[in-house]
UniProtKB/TrEMBL annotation:
One Pfam family of this chain: Pkinase
UniProt GO MF annotations: ATP binding; protein serine/threonine kinase activity
SMART domains: S_TKc (SM00220)
Protein name: Tyrosine protein kinase:Serine/threonine protein kinase
CDD domains in alphabetical order: STKc_PknB_like (cd14014)
Alphabetized SUPFAM superfamilies for the sequence: Protein kinase-like (PK-like)
Occurrences of domain Protein kinase (ranges): 45-303
Family matches, as InterPro entries: Kinase-like_dom_sf, Prot_kinase_dom, Ser/Thr_kinase_AS
Annotated keywords: ATP-binding, Kinase, Nucleotide-binding, Transferase
Amino acid sequence: MPDWFAFGGTFMAVSGELGTVPYALVDDVESTDEPEEEPEQIGGHRIVERIGTGGAAAVYAALDSAGHWVAVKVLHPMVAANTTCRNRFAREVALLREVADTYTAPLLDADIHTERPWLAMRYIAGPTVGRRVDAEGPLMGVELLEFAAGLAEAVAALHRAGIVHRDLKPGNVLLAGDGPKIIDFGIARRTSETGDADSGKILGSPGWISPEQFHHRVPGPAADVFAWGGLVAYAATGRRPFGSGTLRQTVERVLHGEADLRGTPSLLLPWVQAALDTDPDRRPAAAELAAAIGALRDGHQPVHDARSWASISSR
């Protein structure tokens, strides 16, 4: 059940889960503690093992008919029974077809009409940034710069395709050999959409949701930039930038811009601070971040200074 609380006299509902929240705010989907039977095959893909699970779906490592490794995401039975959730899954499949393969796990196949909708993606060897930091500690030096630049490039690519991800967090970014890969488009949306299919709900993961969403603004590209800032701070320090504690405490820190950035390298700190600005109109665009951090990675001076971003931005 969502937690209800008030900010500025307005009551709002946000899921209390600290993990992925997609689909969790749909009132007519009830959770169940019954064990889920592991399938042997999904859409002709032979299941080898479960590699992840969330409130909406499970993800399996599998082998296709040619013996190639794939990752198969399939909705949980209770979720698949809900029309709204099925429509979200269909939207995820459609958006994945529009994302450049360089920056995500490419979509290989899908069936959105079967009893339990599923999609198959190329299997990418590499941990999520969350697992990497938990196991080995913060990223440092060149590795951190490459992560920050690569993630900015990936976010910029999504925005060029007219897509806002809305759920960037440590568990949704893979560290592949050729750069970060963004996964899980369960609550992504097109920037061209005039309305929001999830209007009235705040979807995402507490601590990574941009502050404007708590003021009933439909999240635009600036919401992903906010998450980029949090992810870079997390990768650099090993700490969630808005800490832990209750949902209320986390949201209040986000709303008041109280990010813990201690330990973020001075080279990146101004850009992280700019990305985490509570005003979305004052954040740099992902393309500018990609250019600036890419220049830092390559040993050059960025064209713009992050500290003066607000004065040079015409947005």
